[in-house]
Amino acid sequence: MRLLLILAILSVSCSVRDLEPQKESAFKVKWHTFSEGHALALKTKKLIFMDVFADWCYPCKVMDYDVFNQKEISDYLEKNFISIRVDYENDIPLACGGKLKDAKLCLDEDWRASGQISALPFLAILSPDGRRIFSHTGQMNKQDLLLVLQEIVLEYD
After folding, report:
1. Is 122:52 a contact under the CB 8 Å cutoff?
2. What is the pTM assigned to this prediction?
3. Which of 8-17, 66-75, 88-97, 134-143 has the lowest mean pLDDT?
4. CB under 8 Å to 5, separation ≥6 — which residues?
């Protein structure tokens, strides 16, 4: 129930900000490729945090500087999740077969083909075996993302 309230708040507060990204910090999320991260999640039984981005996506760049470079976020993700980053435009074959543009991301659903990734950034939290627990389209600030991550970790335990 609290997660629904959080989602309602996020839908109001997640607009693209017209600002210059902050200077890069030393704290960064340790990203894995999809294939590496999925295998590691299965091995460690950790949840997966997935960020689907594109180089041309301004909100993705803002999240890189304002959210993923924050110590509180990078530490929390490192402790509780396997963080995967997928380039939406990437045409590199995935280890599980296919490409992002036409593959099921080795998961139980084909997000790209069904139009579920309607905008970027696209953030998702998955179980270790790849079932979707949560997804969000659009930019999030540090506080909102941390709140969602904490709530999901509490519900998953």
Report:
1. yes
2. 0.72
3. 8-17
4. none
